[in-house]
Design brief:
The complex is a heterodimer of chains A (about 475) and B (about 80). Chain A is of the alpha+beta class and about 475 residues long. Chain A has 11 helices and 21 strands. Chain B contains 2 helices and 2 strands, in the order βααβ. In chain B, strands 1-2 form a two-stranded antiparallel sheet. Chain B is globular. The relative contact order of chain B is 0.23. The mean pLDDT of chain B is about 90. The chains are: A alpha+beta (about 475), B mainly alpha (about 80). Chains A and B meet through β12, β13, α7, α8 and α9 of A and β1, α1 and α2 of B.
């Protein structure tokens, strides 16, 4: 690629709440205000989506430089332009900064406008916060506290709208709570490329709905729940499972494919309740796919291996860790390195893969491979490589081409040359071995999270941790 | 782990593991130790340090140097 020379960004002077700041040309006014600590409340605006300017919550007072008779800005005593304030409020989400612009985000006019917008938004809102799943992370609640009226002047009957609608397999809609911000509609159009949502009917009777005959079932549908500022769209999986303020949040990333979308894992008392995307523009922007997001239930499965086990006679029996490790090593010491194969996993971390290679060296074994895991990918985030750490296995020399040496392992086991197989987080059936071949192995050591059909044939079982359980690595 | 675009990212513990299950790296370390005696690895930081010393792509890194947003360690691979 040829060297690109980028022109330095042109800076413009903008006065925000009486203080002059400089921003690159093209900065959204709402972003500029937030950057200098004057957060402007908003519902419809989302920095990763287009700005329709339909919620009116981000109204501010704005002015432009006062022009003199020579069509040049008049300068004040401080040498900065004198601002000509507009008599009516402006939305800050669809406006870029410009030279000499002035903004008041908290003036009496701006405050009055917000209160008015809040009152209108709440007119038909059910105010069912106590049983609403969004409570605790609802912008309508938050902005009511910060910017709303304390009392309601509305005496009429609220409009009844559809409730508890399954928009798709993973998203539930409550139209009465919807404030028609259209974030979900734009997300489906602009990010998921699946234009299924829209508004029908007019005025107070407008409702969000899926296109007739279609459902919100694309693999990114749960992002609409994240960006819904109110309780209109909720996750069918997570709703009513846990009040959000009890959740402990841990920064992590998704291990369901090679993209590695950054996440926040929400847990309480060692139970995972949800995963949500965490912004990282170098990886996943602000999104993640539904498949990855919901792929954590196996950590809480009743198939979890919980107890170290060793083979005694014909049967696996529970043992303590020291005895199990010692027994596994005794089994392996019966064989030379060329009689041992290691089945590693592209789901292991770098540290685990490096230790695996050290272990192989210790054993004198060099037959080691990971099991490839492929699936359909898309042009958004989902990678066809469903192993999260294929590149780690490459960098650490565990594999050159994932799966390339599996044939050698299968052949070695089938011919009887391989006498000890160490399966680390992979089911050897998926590598091409049969149950009979595994049964014939004199030593078959399993380190894994879940039991599978091969586990019962193991000569030693080492129960391991999942991606959300290990110490930082 | 290193993602498909060559970015090194760090996992953090969100929950404790169930039953007697143990951290994979501890199991592997204990296997190596039981097979061949001490290996001087006591913490995950020890593992990372030894790994980064022998892996050019991870040189000069430590667990604490991987930010919450990860760090690029490979050119976007051609494979």
């Amino acid at each position: 690629m040829s060297e690109q020379v980028l022109a330095p960004p042109q800076l413009v002077n903008v006065q925000i709440n009486g203080v002059w700041h400089q921003f690159p040309k093209g900065t959204r006014l709402i972003e500029a205000c937030e950057k200098v600590g004057s957060y402007v409340p908003r519902y419809c605006y989302h920095k990763k989506l287009s700005s329709p300017g339909n919620c009116r919550m981000c109204l501010i007072e704005m002015g432009l430089p006062k022009m003199g008779p020579e069509r040049k800005p008049e300068l004040g005593a401080d040498g900065m332009p004198v601002i000509n304030w507009m008599p009516r409020p402006q939305i800050s989400c669809a406006q870029d900064v410009s030279e000499g612009m002035g903004v008041r985000t908290d003036s009496p006019l701006a405050q009055e406008c917000r209160k008015g917008v809040m009152e209108f938004l709440l007119i038909n809102h059910p105010l069912d916060c106590p049983i609403c799943d969004q409570a605790g992370e609802c912008r309508l609640q938050e902005f009511s506290v910060e910017y709303g009226y304390a009392e309601s002047r509305f005496l009429e009957n609220k409009v009844k709208k559809p409730k508890n609608i399954e928009l798709g397999p993973r998203v539930t809609l409550d139209d009465e709570r919807c404030i028609l911000c259209s974030r979900c509609v734009r997300f489906c159009q602009e990010i998921a490329h699946d234009d299924v949502l829209g508004f029908i009917d007019r005025g107070s009777h407008s409702v969000l709905t899926a296109h007739p005959g279609k459902r919100l079932e694309n693999n990114y549908s749960l992002n609409t729940v994240d960006i819904c500022p109110v309780g209109a769209l909720t996750s069918s999986d997570f709703r009513f499972q846990m009040r959000v303020w009890f959740l402990k949040e841990t920064k992590s990333f998704c291990t369901s494919c090679a993209t590695g979308c950054n996440t926040i894992i929400g847990t309480r008392e060692d139970v995972i309740y949800r995963q949500t995307p965490r912004e990282n523009d170098a990886v996943n922007s602000s999104w993640m796919c539904d498949y990855g997001r919901l792929n954590f239930g196996y950590l809480q499965s009743d198939q979890r291996l919980l107890q170290p086990q060793i083979l005694s006679g014909e049967k696996l029996i529970a043992a303590d860790w020291n005895a199990t490790i010692a027994q596994a090593v005794v089994q392996l010491k019966h064989f030379s390195g060329w009689e041992i194969a290691l089945l590693a996993s592209g789901r292991m971390t770098n540290e685990e893969l490096w230790l695996t290679s050290q272990f192989a060296k210790t054993l004198g074994a060099n037959l080691i491979e990971i099991v490839p895991r492929r699936g359909p990918g898309d042009d958004i985030l989902l990678s066809p490589d469903r192993n999260p750490n294929t590149n780690g296995a490459r960098v650490l020399g565990i594999t050159s081409e994932p799966g390339a040496r599996l044939g050698e392992i299968v052949e070695g086991v089938a011919s009887g040359r391989i006498k000890a197989l160490i399966a680390l987080g992979e089911n050897p059936i998926n590598a091409g071995l049969s149950l009979d071949q595994i049964k014939a192995l004199p030593a078959f050591i399993v380190m894994d999270i879940l039991a599978n059909e091969a586990t019962q044939l193991a000569t030693a079982v080492l129960p391991a941790f999942g991606f959300a359980e290990s110490a930082a690595r | 782990m290193i993602n498909g675009k060559g970015r090194l990212q760090r996992l953090n513990r969100a929950v404790r593991g169930p039953g007697q299950a143990r951290d994979d790296w501890e199991i592997l370390r204990d296997l190596i130790q039981a097979y061949s005696g001490g290996n001087g690895i006591y913490s995950i930081e020890d593992v990372f340090r030894q790994m980064s010393e022998s892996t050019p792509a991870l040189a000069d890194l430590s667990l604490s140097k991987i930010s919450d947003l990860g760090v690029q360690v490979m050119e976007i691979p051609s494979w």
